[in-house]
Design goal:
Helix content is about 45%, strand content about 25%. By secondary structure, the chain is an alpha+beta fold. The chain starts with a helix and ends with a strand.
C-alpha cells in the first residue's frame, strides 16, 4: 500500500514538473466556488502576478482588457455551463500595466452525475502570433489601397474611379443632388514624351496628379487617372457653374506650373483640354451614358483646337 501511495505521489510530482516546465500555463478552477485550485508558476514570469494572487475567477476577469472582458467572460461562462470545451483569445493585464495576448484553452470536467465539477486549462502567450497577424492585416490593407492607386502618379486609378462613381451616382440619385464630372487630357502628350523622354513624361504626369488633387478641395471631391494622359474629377453636390469654375481652376493651376512643352502646336507651356458635365441622376439615367457624354465634350475641346474647356450648352 505504501509503495502504491509512493507511486501516486511520484507520478503527481512528475506531472507537476512537466506542467510547470512548459511554456503553457496550466490552471484549475473549482466550479462550485469559482476559486482557483491551482495555477502554474509560469504566470508570474509572463504577467508579473504571483500564483497566490490568483484566488478566484474574479481575479481572472479583472485582469483582462476592458474591451475584451464582457464578451470573453460571457462566452466562457455560457460554454462552461453547457459543458462544452472551448478557447478564447484576449488581452491579459500585466502587473506593470501592459497587456499580453493570451489564448485560454478550457476543458470542462463533469462529475458522475454529469454536472460541471471543475474547469482545467492552459493559457498560451500568443503575443508574437498576434503581432504577425496584425502585420499581415496591415499589409493586406496596404495592398488593397495600392490596388486602387495609380502606381505612377499616386492618385486613384480607374478601378477606384469606377467604385467612387457608382457610389456617388447612387447618392446623387437618392438625394436629388447634382453630380459633376470633369475629364481632362494633356494636349499633345505623345510629342511631349518624344521630345523630353519618358522619364520626364512620367514626372509630368505625377506633377499634374498633384495639381489636380490641390484643385479638388472638398473632402468628397475625387481625382483619378483615367488612363494614359487622361485624368478625371468627380465632384459630388456640385452644379454646372461650380464645376465650370473648378475646371478653370485646374487650367490656371496647371498654367502656373509653367511646364515647358516646346513641341506643342498650341502652346509653349503644357496645356490641357477639358470636358465638363453635370447631372441630377434619375432611375432612368445610367452613369456610363453620362461619362460618355462628358468624354464627348472632351473630344469636342480637342476638335476646337485644344487648350480649352467644353461644358454643357
Amino acid at each position: 500500500m505504501t509503495d502504491f501511495s509512493h507511486d501516486i505521489e511520484t507520478d503527481t510530482g512528475i506531472y507537476k514538473t512537466l506542467l510547470e516546465s512548459t511554456k503553457a500555463i496550466p490552471w484549475k478552477i473549482d466550479w462550485a466556488s469559482m476559486r482557483f485550485d491551482y495555477i502554474g508558476p509560469q504566470i508570474e514570469s509572463l504577467l508579473g502576478w504571483t500564483p497566490a494572487s490568483w484566488v478566484s475567477a474574479e481575479d481572472w476577469a479583472t485582469r483582462m482588457h476592458p474591451e475584451d472582458r464582457a464578451w470573453v467572460v460571457d462566452f466562457c461562462v455560457s460554454q462552461s455551463q453547457a459543458g462544452t470545451d472551448h478557447e478564447a483569445d484576449y488581452r491579459a493585464l500585466t502587473k506593470a500595466g501592459d497587456y499580453v495576448w493570451i489564448r485560454d484553452v478550457v476543458h470542462v470536467i463533469r462529475n458522475a452525475a454529469g454536472d460541471v465539477e471543475a474547469l482545467v486549462g492552459f493559457m498560451f502567450d500568443i503575443s508574437e502570433r498576434k503581432k504577425t497577424e496584425q502585420k499581415l492585416l496591415d499589409l493586406q490593407k496596404e495592398l488593397e489601397a495600392l490596388s486602387f492607386k495609380d502606381g505612377l502618379t499616386g492618385v486613384a486609378n480607374r478601378r477606384m474611379f469606377d467604385s467612387i462613381m457608382e457610389m456617388e451616382w447612387a447618392h446623387a440619385r437618392h438625394s436629388s443632388q447634382p453630380l459633376s464630372l470633369i475629364m481632362l487630357d494633356i494636349d499633345y502628350f505623345k510629342q511631349y514624351n518624344d521630345h523630353y523622354g519618358h522619364i520626364q513624361g512620367d514626372q509630368c504626369l505625377k506633377q499634374i496628379g498633384q495639381v489636380l488633387t490641390s484643385a479638388a478641395t472638398r473632402s468628397r471631391d475625387f481625382v483619378a487617372r483615367f488612363g494614359g494622359e487622361e485624368f478625371v474629377l468627380v465632384l459630388p453636390e456640385t452644379d454646372e457653374a461650380a464645376a465650370a469654375k473648378i475646371a478653370e481652376r485646374c487650367r490656371n493651376l496647371l498654367f502656373k506650373e509653367q511646364i515647358p512643352h516646346e513641341n506643342s502646336p498650341v502652346s509653349q507651356i503644357l496645356s490641357v483640354s477639358i470636358g465638363v458635365g453635370t447631372v441630377v441622376p434619375t432611375h432612368a439615367d445610367e452613369p456610363v451614358a453620362f461619362i460618355e457624354a462628358v468624354d464627348r465634350r472632351l473630344y469636342q475641346a480637342k476638335e476646337n483646337g485644344r487648350n480649352c474647356i467644353v461644358k454643357a450648352g
